[in-house]
Amino acid sequence: MRDPDALLEVRGLKKAFGGVVALRGIDLTLERRQIIGLVGDNGAGKSTLIKIISGVYPPDEGEIQYEGKPIRFSSPMEARGVGIETVYQHLALIPQMSILRNFFLGKEMLRRIGPFGFMDFNDMRGICKEALEGLGIRVRCLDEDVSFLSGGERQAVAIARALHFGAKLLILDEPTAALSVRETETVLNYIIEARNRGLAVIFITHSLHQVYPVADRLVILEHGRKIGDFKRDEVALEDLTGIIRGTQTKDSS
Ligand SMILES: Nc1ncnc2c1ncn2[C@@H]1O[C@H](COP(=O)(O)OP(=O)(O)O)[C@@H](O)[C@H]1O
Ligand SMILES: [Mg+2]
User: Fold this and answer.
1) 1 lies in a domain?
2) Secondary structure E strands in 73-223
């Protein structure tokens, strides 16, 4: 693989579920400090692609290089361990737990006293507050259950958590699908902030209009194939809309 700036390179990725070929021949290069908008109709293969990258499924064929080394994850935990964090629309946080507990889920800070480890809530509180405020997120109380937060606030906490724990690649699968226009704008600003801090971001959405202004690159999937891969500066929104509309006309004919 060639690109020295690449954080992630996938080559020739294929994945089928029974008789359904969800992805075929997918090549993708993702650089650090880059936002990729991954767009395409329902069933195009977007979620399958990022699930392979984040260790949920193994590919049937193809290879993945991350930080210049070939990788083959056997679980999402392994992908998280090397800095690949995925935020799903619904599963971003556990609603019945506090903001604080969610922030540190699986990464609680222990203070050792003799043979026992105690969670150090004071330190955790300070760190969580700082991480949220660093992104401009204001929450009323860290002990409040996440179920009281709006959809946008939940995404914000999940993004702040990923940033704090050193993610290098942040993947968001339709994070704004259930959000109001204003909340969507706020989440998009967090994504730009993540990029400005050096992360690579894959942002999946149905809405080309939403992702076009913030993306550095736009990748279009259709029926499991990549049918477009453009630098944002080199392609007009209308041209992309045309490509996507073309596939939809083909579908309905
Ligand atoms: N776990 C699965 N089992 C069987 N088929 C699946 C599974 N996941 C996805 N598919 C199929 O693969 C195709 C791509 O799905 P998906 O990646 O979810 O698309 P998208 O996220 O773009 O809507 C669809 O035809 C879908 O039905
Ligand atoms: Mg999907």
Assistant:
1) no
2) 84-88, 110-113, 116-119, 169-173, 200-205, 217-222
Mutation to probe ligand 1, out of 42, 47, 54, 247 (largest number of atoms < 8 A from CB): 47
Residue 22, ligand 1, Cβ within 6 A: yes
**CA-nearest residue, atom 24 of ligand 1:** 43
pTM of the model: 0.90
Number of domains in the chain: 1
Provide the CB-side half-sphere exposure for 59 (13 A, CA).
22
Has residue 136 been placed in a domain? yes
User: Any idea which ligand is nearest the CA of 39?
Assistant: 1
Q: Is 45 close to ligand 1, i.e. is its CB under 6 Å away?
A: yes
Per-residue model confidence (pLDDT) at position 55: 94
pLDDT in tens, 60-83: 999 999 999 999 999 988 998 899
Instruction: Quote the pLDDT of residue 167.
Output: 93
Contact 39, 33 (CB under 8 A): no
CA–CA separation, 246 and 162 (whole Å) = 37
Q: Whose CA is nearest to atom 7 of ligand 1?
A: 17
**Pocket lining: 43 vs ligand 1, CB cutoff 6 Å:** yes
The domain containing residue 71 runs over which residues? 6-252
pLDDT computed for residue 253 by the predictor? 47
Residues of the chain whose pLDDT is less than 50?
Answer: 253
Please tell me the predicted confidence (pLDDT) of residue 231: 96
